[in-house]
Design brief:
Elements (H helix, E strand, L loop, with lengths): L1 H28 L2 H20 L9 H7 L7 E2 L10 H7 L6 H4 L3 E5 L27 H11 L2 E5 L6 H18 L1 H5 L12 H11 L3 H45 L6 E5 L33 E5 L9 H7 L4 E6 L1 H17 L6 E3 L11 E6 L4 E7 L4 E7 L5 E10 L3 H4 L4 E4 L8 H5 L4 E3 L2 E2 L5 H19 L6 E5 L35 H11 L5 E4 L2 H5 L16 H9 L11 H28 L2
Parallel strand pairs: 1-2, 6-9, 6-12, 11-13, 12-15, 15-16
Antiparallel strand pairs: 2-3, 4-5, 7-8, 8-9, 10-11, 13-14
Length: 615
């Protein structure tokens, strides 16, 4: 024990002696004071680093700049990398520091828009937090950057430990930010911000860098949803519009079906006439008043307006479709020829190729022959006219002196009846020839069988003739195939005499407005109506008698011929035409009424078919 103590004492003394020798050396260099100071400073500095590694909160800016990354990250493109030179050293000395991941300098990749007007991205300068979720860029700021600059920003961490969690958090946060601003980022940029040309490319880059396929799908679904919604609204509007149009048509048809089309008034309408005056070469010279020198035109701009409904304007294109493959025949006197020419002109004006509308025999004048036929080649139908002023046969029989005597066979229908009995639509008329002297007096003129009446009242003769016609229709016309119409008597307006005794109407340029000035309803039309009621087959009555009585302004009067000589001019003043009508003019309205009746029949047929379908 004593020896050990002795040995320690000896050794300790030697050590002390050695130290004293060392300090002697320092003392000789005159620097011992400086050495002691340096050593103390080094020890203090090392202790400070050991117990205070997180110095980001230091108030000394220069100190912070050395051992931590700058708060403004270095911006690089996708191919470069930069950061604090001390970061790897710091990680080496303090590998288990809780703040290591948050202290890593974020490397920021910026894929810039090709838009040369893009502004620098605004990046959050807030220092990193101490948790495991790296999020140095605020979500709202990201949204702003994407919104205003369409610049895709993604972050790459150098730490492999927290990389997955960091990217997941960033994708979620970016998705939330984009979701909140989806409309503005995908549909419309903010005001005064240039729209980049490669916005879709940048969006794709963002999705790829963040693994955000769900985000892309969500955006696409949003766009698709918006498009579908817009399309659905458009289709809904179109459907609603279609329903309204259909409802309007149904209401119009319902009104027409419950309306007296022939009780109304004439109104001025500048959209008339239905075809341009002078445009139809098929108008007979007798009716072509404009060409014959008539200068006033207001009579062409009058539309018939029923009191209880609106008369649809004649749609020539639609009527061509209704008549496709059919025969439409007019049978009667020159007033039906007036109506026939009017309809031919209306339909020709609506034909795709007017050159494919022509008279079957190449005729251009429509008086003197027993019948005429206009062919509408493109629509495969014809509009025909058969001359039959009485609807019964004009006859000749031997007189007592051996001469031939003209009579009217009240018991025989017109000779041409077999030629048109199979037509799809037949429009009959008669009336004016029953006012001539021979028929009005009724002496030795009317015949039944071999019997010639010495005298027969004209109304009775008229009834007998119509009864013969009615029996023929009931017996010979198939109601399942043919539609039959009868157009009523057309009023005349001779003033100061009749057609052959100085009657005139050349000074009339306005229609009658006051009903008290209308003529009495013709007794012959009352006879017609009673006959129609007794028929088996249905006949549609176009009762135009009263509506024509208003139109004293619509006759050719003195404008019956073109380029009159002086003698002819005097003759026209003496024999004015106040029975027929100028074209365009009043007969166009008759055809509009005829068209309305066709629409009514078509609607009834469709209703009947629908009822059968749902039974």
């Amino acid at each position: 024990m004593a020896e050990a103590t002795k040995h320690l004492s000896m050794n300790g003394g030697a050590l002390i002696t050695d130290l004293k020798g060392l300090f002697t050396v320092f003392r000789t260099r005159r620097s011992i004071a400086f050495a002691y100071g340096f050593m103390l400073a080094f020890v203090a500095f090392t202790v400070f680093l050991a117990f205070n590694p997180s110095s980001s909160n230091s108030s000394s800016p220069w100190f912070t700049s050395i051992f931590t990354t700058t708060t403004t990250p270095t911006l690089t493109d996708s191919s470069g990398s930069s950061g604090s030179h001390f970061s790897s050293v710091f990680s080496y000395f303090f590998p288990n520091s809780s703040s290591s991941s948050s202290s890593l300098p974020p490397q920021i990749n910026i894929t810039r828009s090709n838009n040369s007007f893009s502004q620098p991205p605004q990046i959050n300068s807030q220092p990193p937090s101490k948790n495991n979720h790296t999020q140095n860029i605020d979500n709202s700021d990201k949204a702003k950057v994407l919104h205003s600059n369409t610049t895709t920003i993604s972050r790459q961490e150098s730490s492999s430990v927290n990389k997955t969690a960091t990217q997941s958090t960033q994708s979620h946060d970016k998705a939330q930010a984009l979701k909140a601003n989806q409309t503005s980022t995908t549909s419309k940029p903010p005001p005064n911000t240039p729209v980049p040309t490669n916005q879709s490319t940048n969006s794709s880059s963002l999705v790829k860098e963040n693994g955000g396929k769900a985000l892309k799908n969500g955006a696409e679904k949003g766009l698709k949803s918006n498009y579908t919604s817009s399309l659905s609204k458009k289709q809904s509007n179109e459907t609603n519009s279609g329903v309204l149009v259909k409802q309007s048509l149904e209401n119009t048809m319902e009104a027409l079906m419950n309306c007296d089309l022939f009780d109304g008034e004439w109104i001025h309408d500048d959209s008339y006439p239905l075809y341009k005056p002078g445009s139809c070469s098929f108008i007979d010279e007798q009716f072509n008043c404009i060409r014959n020198g008539r200068s006033d035109t207001d009579y062409q701009k009058m539309k018939w307006k029923p009191k209880g409904c609106n008369l649809p304007r004649l749609d020539g294109v639609h009527m061509l479709k209704l008549l496709r493959g059919k025969r439409l025949v007019f049978v009667g006197d020159s007033l039906n020829r007036n109506m026939w020419e009017s309809l031919v002109c209306i339909l020709k004006n609506s034909a795709k190729d007017p050159s494919n509308v022509f008279e079957a025999h190449g005729r251009h004048h429509f008086r003197g022959e027993a019948s005429y036929s206009f062919i509408f080649k493109d629509n495969n139908f014809s509009v025909e006219f058969f001359v039959s002023p009485f609807l019964v046969q004009e006859w000749e029989m031997p007189d007592k002196d051996g001469s031939k005597k003209e009579t009217l066979r009240l018991d025989l229908v017109g000779r041409s009846s077999d030629q048109y009995k199979g037509a799809d639509i037949i429009i009959f008329n008669t009336g004016h020839w029953w006012t001539h002297d021979k028929t009005a007096k009724g002496k030795d003129y009317y015949q039944e069988g071999s019997h010639v009446y010495g005298e027969l009242n004209v109304l009775e003769a008229f009834r007998k003739a119509l009864t013969t016609w009615a029996r023929w229709v009931d017996a010979s016309v198939n109601p399942k195939k043919s539609m039959v119409f009868f157009r009523g008597y057309s009023a005349s307006h001779f003033s100061g005499g009749q057609w052959n005794s100085g009657g005139a109407c050349d000074s009339e340029t306005k229609p009658i407005k006051n009903e008290t000035y209308l003529s009495a309803y013709p007794p012959k039309m009352k006879v017609l109506e009673s006959v129609l009621k007794g028929m088996k087959n249905h006949v549609t009555y176009l009762n135009i008698t009263r509506l024509t009585d208003y139109r004293k302004d619509g006759h050719p009067s003195v404008y019956r011929k073109h380029n009159l000589s002086k003698a002819e001019r005097k003759l026209t003043l003496k024999y004015q035409d106040c029975s027929h009508w100028c074209l365009p003019g009043v007969p166009d309205a008759w055809n509009e009424l005829f068209y309305a009746e066709l629409l009514i029949k078509e609607n009834k047929m469709l209703q009947h078919q629908n009822q059968k379908r749902f039974r």
